[in-house]
């Protein structure tokens, strides 16, 4: 996505000084053996033991519920029991074991660096990070997704852009299930958009690789720091 206007406005006041921002990353997956999706039921993914290199320890969490954000119905609410507080834009789904090895991961290739990454974006003022990644998936890759699991929160390394702007991100990481849409480049931030089999992923940064492996691992509580 282009630099949000609120950042451009801030830069007029602070110049190139360090700027603390909120980011969102979405590991988008689909099961190529099951491409018929019921938008009402919003089935969830738990990953199973998809990658042999992912530890089998589930971190103490198993069969809880996780939030699914419907990309095309931002005001819809479906609650399975009275204990789940109403939250605009959220549909809840039960976790169920799958263990499928037919999963694919959607990655975008950055136009500026050529690096393959999951879909990422900057949280707009007043926007929830899970809503951010649903919006970014549609803008960057032209796909509709549901957020089925909150994976991690992490602080990325400081960045300095070619123009001298400095920033650092508090990054929220989500597992996202593809619902519909033909994956393709949606804006000038990316040069390619492609589905990859999980055993044929391209080179990824350490943090992005950790995010993908966390999304494919058995469910656990949210991780505080991808690399810790």
What would you say this structure looks like, in words?
The protein is of the alpha+beta class and 228 residues long. The protein is 15% helix and 33% strand. The protein is built from three helices and eleven strands, in the order H-E-E-E-E-E-E-H-E-E-E-E-H-E. It has helices at residues 5-14, 129-141, 206-216; strands at residues 19-31, 65-69, 90-94, 103-110, 116-117, 119-122, 144-155, 159-160, 166-180, 190-197, 223-224. Strands 1, 4, 5, 6, 7, 8, 9, 10 and 11 form a nine-stranded mixed sheet that branches. It has a two-stranded antiparallel ribbon with strand order 2-3.
Give the SSE map.
Blueprint: H1 5-14, E1 19-31, E2 65-69, E3 90-94, E4 103-110, E5 116-117, E6 119-122, H2 129-141, E7 144-155, E8 159-160, E9 166-180, E10 190-197, H3 206-216, E11 223-224
Parallel strand pairs: 1-9, 7-11
Antiparallel strand pairs: 1-4, 1-6, 2-3, 4-5, 4-10, 7-9, 8-9
Brief digest:
The chain has 228 residues and is α+β, with helices and mostly antiparallel strands. It is 15% helix and 33% strand. The protein starts with a helix and ends with a strand.
Shape: globular
Give the strand content: 25-35%
Number of strands: 11
Alpha-carbon Rg, integer: 17 Å
Number of helical elements: 3
- What structural category characterises the helix and strand content? alpha+beta
Give average pLDDT, whole number. Answer: 76
Along the chain, the helix and strand elements come as HEEEEEEHEEEEHE
Distance from first to last alpha carbon: 29 Å
User: What is the share of helical residues?
Assistant: 10-25%
Q: Poorly predicted ranges (pLDDT <50, ≥5 residues)? A: 36-99
Biggest β-sheet, characterized? Answer: 9 strands, mixed
């Amino acid at each position: 996505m282009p630099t949000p206007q609120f950042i451009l406005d801030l830069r007029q006041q602070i110049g190139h000084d360090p700027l603390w921002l909120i980011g969102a990353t979405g590991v988008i997956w689909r099961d190529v053996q099951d491409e018929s999706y019921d938008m009402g039921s919003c089935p969830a993914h738990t990953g199973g033991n998809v990658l042999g290199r992912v530890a089998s320890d589930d971190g103490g969490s198993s069969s809880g519920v996780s939030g699914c954000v419907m990309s095309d119905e931002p005001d819809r609410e479906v609650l399975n029991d009275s204990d789940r507080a109403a939250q605009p834009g959220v549909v809840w789904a039960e976790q169920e074991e799958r263990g499928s090895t037919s999963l694919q991961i959607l990655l975008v290739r950055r136009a500026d660096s050529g690096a393959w990454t999951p879909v990422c974006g900057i949280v707009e003022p007043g926007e929830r990070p899970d809503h951010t990644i649903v919006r970014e998936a549609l803008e960057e890759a032209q796909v509709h997704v549901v957020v089925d699991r909150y994976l991690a929160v992490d602080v990325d390394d400081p960045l300095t852009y070619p123009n001298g702007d400095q920033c650092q991100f508090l990054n929220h990481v989500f597992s996202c299930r593809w619902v519909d849409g033909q994956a393709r480049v949606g804006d000038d931030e990316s040069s390619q958009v492609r589905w990859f089999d999980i055993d044929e992923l391209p080179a990824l940064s350490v943090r992005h690789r950790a995010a993908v492996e966390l999304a494919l691992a058995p469910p656990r509580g949210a991780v505080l720091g991808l690399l810790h």
